[in-house]
Amino acid sequence: GIAILLLTASANAAAAFLVQWMVWRATADVSLSVVAGLFTGGWYLTTMGSWYCDHAAYLVVLGAAALWLTDVPTYRKHVAAGLIIGLSFWFKQTTGTLASIAFGLAYLSDVPFSALRRAPFWAMVAAAASAFGAVLGVLLLISDHYLLLKYFVTLPLIFSHANKNTSLLLAMLVTPYLLNPIRAIRGHHLGDLDMYLVVILIYFSYGVILWRRQLLRERSPLRFALIFLFVSTMLCVPMVGRNLSQLMWGLGGVFALVVYLAVPGDSRLRARAGVGLLLFTLLFWVPHIWVDQLSRPGIDMTSGRMSAMWPVSINTGRFTSLMDSPGQALALADIA
What is the C-alpha end-to-end distance of the chain, expressed in Å? Predict the structure, then answer.
């Protein structure tokens, strides 16, 4: 049980560090990178309360994106990124694939189109295929093929069919988080209205990107980081059936990069905007943490509250039991 908590804390810290690193490499602005890291650390797995497969898959591809901004030699960078991307699929099919697509789009924005005919790119493709194939080969050797197909392909599609509508991917770009403020007001959905503050920041980010698109054309690391973090967030959100506050993904980095884009020549104004973003994050974060994890003390963790976090066992962790949903319980009963 303690291992699950340590794993969750480590993954959360890793996500915060990677986003902070990407913002720093893209902007060389220490204050904004710290803001991005704190934002990510506050939201990534904190509101979730435990390790979760979608966040693990996103974290893996986030690592590949952060690696891309390092000074590692070209071939090593391509091969390492390919290996990481090839493994991401096995953490969670949808999130790993969509985050990898976002990486591919960011990659195409960072290299000339002719790079697709060169050896480093094909080395990355070969590395991704090798990593994917190696895991698949091991599974084919040690597992029941019927059960592998059933539990890795068939049942996930059945359980989450509503989220697999590809039109949601396009709709998400136009209406972030698919929130309708008018419907929220009419239905008295205060949680949706609360989350719409984030949607407003996303629309603001769209405007700044259009306004400063010339600067993006000139700054390759800035362009790569912003495209990956923004596109991966928008693609992955509709594929995960969780509370919206648990799907911030790379928005901390996006907002920090947008602040830099808006005022690239004024470090003091950027610092003030970063502090404002941090205060907004804190004020927005507190009620969600209270509702998601700290309210109703004494309720066991399978109800979705982590107030009784210590000590925790593998059988009471929120997303650690094989029987954490009726569908999975029926599926397991079916095998038995």
Answer: 26
